[in-house]
Amino acid sequence: MTPDVLVIGGGNAALCAALMAREAGASVLLLESAPRAWRGGNSGHTRNLRCMHDAPQDVLVEAYPEEEYWQDLLKVTGGLTNEHLARLVIRASSNCRDWMRSHGVHFQPPLSGALHVARTNAFFMGGGKALVNAYYRSAEKLGVQIRYEAPVDRIEIDNGRFIAAHCTVNGQPERITARACVLAAGGFESNREWLREAWGQNERGEWPADNFLIRGTAYNRGVLLKHLLDDHGADRIGDPTQAHMVAIDARAPLYDGGICTRIDCVSLGVVVNREGERFYDEGEDFWPKRYAIWGRLVAQQPGQIGYSIIDSKAIGRFMPPVFPGVKADSLPELAQKLGLPVDTFMRTLDTYNAACRVGQFDHTALDDCHTEGVTPAKTHWARPIDTGPFYGYALKPGVTFTYLGLHTDDTAAVRFHNQPSSNLFVAGEMMAGNVLGKGYTAGVGMSIGTAFGRIAGTNAAQAALASQQPPALTDKSPEAIKNGANHAIA
């Protein structure tokens, strides 16, 4: 028997879609390309959800009203965002947590030093992996059918309407039909060839993408995204070089390093390239609003590498990374250990130190410690790096997810020639570029995935149930759905 709704993907957005579709009375089949042990995509590496709230709410302190949230998003994207869809996400973030709790997600106050986001972000107890596991447990209990190691490589579409998906199960091709479909299969960040094509070759003859590390899953290769864009002419949005790209420890693994590989001391020191020169304002804004630009900044430097330099005054003021930094008793010794040109490095540090105008240092506020007469300036938290021992961290670009995606609207429908599909919807990273043209602010990816996953699931269920002639099942109980879907995919 044909399931009402097919969900392609296995992360937060896909699970939200599957749960909402099932709650709306639809039978649901979810296809996850990864093995069960690696299910959940990038969502397993998340920690929190950015939430609008007009007053204190359980784990959220003070208030974070819609307009402030919107201004934060507007600033980090530089205006490359759809305000209507962005505000939809913002408003949805204010009322989703009770629903999340109903599916087993628990929240906790942020730990000490968690990026100053106690006011803006709700942290998952147990992190993203616990959230993913809770959603899968709830989906199974409700009768959502789940198949692992079932990558979908193409779908059939007729005049903008979804017909069937083609996947591989146990090495065998399989065609699965459904009355409606939700695409939530992620971006293309783990597709090295596509990254290479997008970034091309720079003026130094380098292929920057060759030096990128992938913070998240190895399974987001963008196969369906490319298929929809190239083979079906789906409307696209976003720049293929734009991504949630963070400066991470250069010693991080190629895939799945996650949050612990991030280097969070950038705003408390200086960053130099392999030539020993600074290249951007390290104190431009609070770290949660700027950390996701630094991967791109490092990607533009020679060899796609940078070095975060701090002294002992910074210790204890940032979340410590998983790997210890390179330590030295003097700055020339640190330069030597990092393999940097000592003379240029010392000229850079001496110039910076002399330019510091130290006022009332406060790493929790936009303080008045700044530089004068040096380019680039450091606008906040500028203090001389003069107190040993000194520490250095080599940085590489860490790609979390890409922003090129499918153009959609507030119904989450996939669009073809500016016309919305009647039964094909999209959520999560595959459409995040509608809200994130560039830049990032902590927790907003989960806000987008949750909002659009729920919208896509609801609308897919409505489209599927409206199309049934006669209805596929008269008994829509979880047990009846489960038994029927078992026959459908046996």
TrEMBL record:
InterPro entries listed in its UniProt record: CobZ, FAD-dep_OxRdtase_2_FAD-bd, FAD-oxidoreductase_2, FAD/NAD-bd_sf, Succ_DH/fumarate_Rdtase_cat_sf
Keyword Oxidoreductase: yes
Key words of the record: FAD, Flavoprotein, Oxidoreductase
Known cofactor(s): FAD
Gene3D superfamilies assigned to the protein according to its UniProt record, in alphabetical order: FAD/NAD(P)-binding domain, Succinate dehydrogenase/fumarate reductase flavoprotein, catalytic domain
TM stretches of this protein: none
Signal peptide positions on this chain: none
Molecular-function GO terms, alphabetical: oxidoreductase activity
Pfam families registered for this protein in UniProt: FAD_binding_2
FAD-dependent oxidoreductase 2 FAD-binding domain segment(s): 4-435
Region spans: Disordered: 468-490
Protein name as annotated: Tricarballylate dehydrogenase
Native species: Acidovorax soli
